[in-house]
Design goal:
InterPro entries: Restrct_endonuc-II-like, tRNA_endonuc-like_dom_sf, UPF0102_YraN-like. This is UPF0102 protein ACFQ1C_02005. This protein has four helices and five strands, in the order ααβββααββ. It is of the alpha+beta class. The radius of gyration is 17 Å and the shape is globular.
């Protein structure tokens, strides 16, 4: 039984250590977006918050406002671009994940000021859309 446990632990570790090229590119653009937002005066609270309802790329703050940031990359805008890829379904998923985050921190969503920002990376350009949805 210990062997099976060690094997699954090893497989889990080796899987998490190896990343796909698209995930590596995603991480690269998330870091770029983070640096951009830090330069704009936002403060980082957390990267890649994950709960059963979804993931939030960056959680930042400005003043007393929590900023939930979705980072999207597209090589070009031939099919609507990065901003257009955040569908209403994706927005709802982000709202639900943000709700989980607030609950995990013991924050009251009716009293905590929040917004959802989008950082759309297209080619080498960065477009920051504050209060995107």
């Amino acid at each position: 039984m210990a062997t099976g446990s060690n094997t699954s632990k090893h497989l889990k570790n080796s899987t998490s250590e190896s990343s796909s090229p698209s995930r590596n590119k995603g991480d690269q653009f998330e870091r770029r977006a983070e640096q951009y937002l830090l330069a704009q005066g936002l403060q980082l609270q957390m990267r890649n918050y994950l709960c059963k309802l979804g993931e939030i790329d960056l959680i930042m703050s400005v003043g007393n406002t929590l900023v939930f940031v979705e980072v999207r990359y597209r090589k070009n805008n031939h099919f609507g671009g990065a901003a257009a890829s955040v569908t209403p379904a994706k927005q709802q998923k982000l709202r639900r994940a943000a709700h989980c985050y607030l609950q995990s921190k013991g924050l009251n969503e009716s009293l905590q000021s929040c917004r959802f920002d989008l950082v759309a990376c297209e080619g080498t350009d960065i477009h920051w859309i504050s209060n995107a949805f």
